TrEMBL record:
Protein's organism: Desmonostoc muscorum LEGE 12446
Cellular compartments per GO CC: cytosol
SMART domains with a match to the protein in the record: Dak2
Any one GO BP annotation for this protein: glycerol catabolic process
Name under which the protein is recorded: Dihydroxyacetone kinase subunit L
């Protein structure tokens, strides 16, 4: 089971990962985007974390919805709507729940991915966060079907995400600002995919630290 406290820890951890990687994410975005991904994400997640004490005693769905609303209102560019939608759809999948089974976690991750697909209209191979999130959710689902447990499933999801992130480097971008560069977008790691990987990695870190395998 994933507890409400662990979800709060995860959000704190992800915000810390964004802060620590702010310059790196912005550097990646400078190569193929607006050079503001790290800056925008850091600002948005700092504001989201500041809101958490107001919902710390609420259900997981309410916590994630609060994060969503804060991100949508405070992050510019494509990142705000996409991450806001991810957390909004994820929140709807776990409404009123205070702890999550591995099936709940699968539904949360799948709902977030579905939201990003619908909002951003990106497909696999377009060099976006979808290229990282989709294989990760697929790996998580496969692990759940094999009754591997939440932590093992998350380990497999993060491993798939890491491989997929590296595979964005040779891709040509077909969505967003990076698509304007055409072939010049080849050879650069996708910044949105990178922050998506950090999101999953930070969740795994919290689950592993609990010692529940």
């Amino acid at each position: 089971m994933v507890s409400q406290a662990q979800i709060l820890q995860w959000l704190q951890s992800f915000a810390s990962e964004i802060e620590q990687n702010k310059a790196y994410l912005t550097e990646l975005d400078a190569a193929i985007g607006d050079a503001d991904h790290g800056i925008n994400m850091d600002r948005g997640f700092k504001k989201a974390i500041a809101q958490l004490p107001t919902v710390a005693d609420k259900d997981i769905g309410s916590i994630l919805k609060t994060v969503s609303m804060t991100l949508i209102s405070s992050i510019g560019g494509a990142s705000g709507p996409l991450y806001g939608t991810w957390f909004l759809r994820a929140s709807a999948a776990v409404t009123l729940k205070h702890e999550l089974t591995e099936q709940d976690m699968l539904e949360l991750l799948q709902a977030g991915l579905d939201g990003v697909l619908q909002r951003g209209k990106a497909q696999l191979g377009d060099k976006t966060m979808v290229d990282v999130l989709s294989p990760a959710v697929g790996a998580f689902q496969q692990a759940v079907e094999q009754n591997n447990g939440t932590v093992k499933a998350m380990q497999q999801a993060v491993a798939a995400a890491q491989r997929a992130l590296e595979e964005t480097i040779p891709m040509q971008a077909k969505k967003g600002r990076a698509s304007y560069l055409g072939e010049r977008s080849v050879g650069h790691q996708d910044p949105g995919g990178t922050s998506a990987y950090l999101m999953l990695k930070s969740l795994l870190g919290v689950l592993e630290s609990s010692g529940e395998f």
